[in-house]
Design a protein that fits this description.
single chain; 370 residues; alpha/beta; TIM Barrel; eight-stranded parallel sheet; two-stranded antiparallel ribbon; 15 helices
Length: 370
């Protein structure tokens, strides 16, 4: 019943808000500071328009594309998200199975609830490992080596978290990983028994990638020591595709291109880091102009619909990623909810292509005027 009630990302969010403990919902939904940045991101996307065209034969449309030369059935994938199993037990693997079905990249977070080896196996190879630099970097490079050994061909270095942003909604609930259960949290869980009982049955979500010798992870540990030298070391040791995620400045983008990075992901971390950051959709155009037409650019942050995805694509992105709305769909309706929202996003994109007189994303980009 819950899955069939999802007709938009907002439906999924509304249903998830009912089901999830307040602490968990606000962890997924929250943003940095006063959340003005998140509001500004949404307003910038809403203000963008697409150019309708008429009397073109758009009866035969395709959402297929390719990423790093690999075919993908959709022009959008799954952004790396930490602790997805908070949305529902097994959420990580639901996302991995979705990636396998549609041959789209699944971002496997450093702080995933499921080991990276199980994720790429379930995703049938359609997985990219997202890497955080942390502390002195020793553990970071161990994780990169482990990802390489597990068969990952694409590494995504996230660079917009020198320090974890202050997210007041998390702080008000006393959100920590692992959970510290006090009276307030106990009441929160008690008032959401369905989630609490399923979580109790499956066990508390863990940061699964840190169960290895000589490495521990503190979510709040400073990541401020990362530098261009760090990037150079990583480029030297990683022979596969190297993506740098969290870029909003054109000068930085040019420097990354010159440093041998294979692609850039324009992102504000879903507005979870710097409340005053520019809107990613606005930065995308400047970065595309700076790096040239052929350089691979990816995009995430704030996308809520197929039309949003198409806006980013015609603005200069080669591929885009959805994030927290997928967790909301899982919280609302488990794997059926995720599939339902994915079909909604696919249909929204296909219909938007028809409305602008295009039969593919490539055609839309070629003829775009926004």
């Amino acid at each position: 019943m819950r899955a069939s009630a999802i007709h938009s990302a907002e439906d999924a969010r509304r249903l998830a808000r009912r089901r999830l403990p307040w602490m968990v919902f606000d962890y997924i939904d929250g943003a940095a500071g006063t959340e003005v940045g998140a509001t500004r991101n949404r307003a910038a996307l809403d203000a963008m328009t697409l150019r309708p065209r008429i009397l073109r034969d758009v009866s035969d449309r395709s959402l297929s594309t390719s990423v790093f030369g690999t075919p993908a059935q959709r022009p959008f994938g799954i952004a790396p998200m930490g602790m997805c199993n908070l949305a529902a037990p097994g959420a990580d693997l639901m996302l991995a199975r979705l990636a396998a079905r549609y041959s789209i990249p699944l971002g496997v977070s450093t702080v995933a609830s499921t080991p990276m080896e199980e994720m790429i196996e379930t995703a049938q190879g359609n997985a990219w490992f997202q890497l955080y630099f942390s502390g002195d970097g020793a553990g970071t490079f161990k994780l990169a080596e482990r990802a390489r050994d597990a068969g990952y061909e694409t590494l995504v270095l996230t660079v917009d978290v020198p320090e974890v942003g202050r997210r007041p909604r998390e702080l008000r609930h006393g959100f920590t990983m692992p959970f510290r259960i006090g009276p307030r949290q106990f009441l929160d869980f008690a008032l959401h028994p369905r989630w609490s009982l399923s979580a109790l049955a499956k066990g508390r979500p863990q940061m699964a990638n840190f169960h290895m010798a000589g490495y521990s992870f503190d979510r709040t540990e400073s990541r401020a020591k990362a530098s261009w030298d760090t990037l150079a070391r990583l480029r030297d040791m990683w022979s596969g595709n190297l993506v740098v995620k969290g870029v909003l400045d054109a000068e930085d983008a040019v420097a990354l291109k010159e440093a041998g990075v294979d692609a850039i992901q324009v992102s504000s971390h879903g507005a979870r880091q710097l409340d005053s950051a520019p809107t990613p959709i606005s930065a995308l155009s400047d970065i595309r102009q700076a790096v040239g037409a052929e350089y691979p650019l990816f995009f995430d942050s704030g996308l809520r619909s197929g039309e949003d995805a198409l806006k980013a694509l015609v603005r200069g992105a080669d591929f885009v990623f959805f994030g927290r709305i997928l967790q909301f769909a899982i919280a609302a309706g488990a794997e059926a909810g995720l599939q339902q929202l994915w079909e909604v996003l696919s249909e929204e994109t296909s219909i938007a292509l028809a409305q602008i007189g295009a039969t593919s994303v490539a055609a839309a980009k070629a003829g775009s005027k926004v």
